Amino acid sequence: MTEAPESTANYCYRHPDRQSFILCQRCGRTICPECQTPGAVGVICPECMRAQRQSAPRTKSRVFSSLRSGAKPVMTYGIIAVTAFVFIVQSLPGIGGSVTGALQYAGVYSVPGAGVGYGFEPWRMLTSVFVHASILHIALNMYTLWIFGMIMEPMLGRGRYLALYLISGFAGSLGVYVLAPLNQPVVGASGAIFGLVGAFFVIQRHLGGSSTQLLILVGINLVIGFIPSLGIAWQAHVGGLIGGILVGLIYVWTRPMRRRAWQIPALAVLSLLLVAGIFLK
Question: What is the distance of C-alpha 205 from the center of its chain?
Answer without folding.
Answer: 15
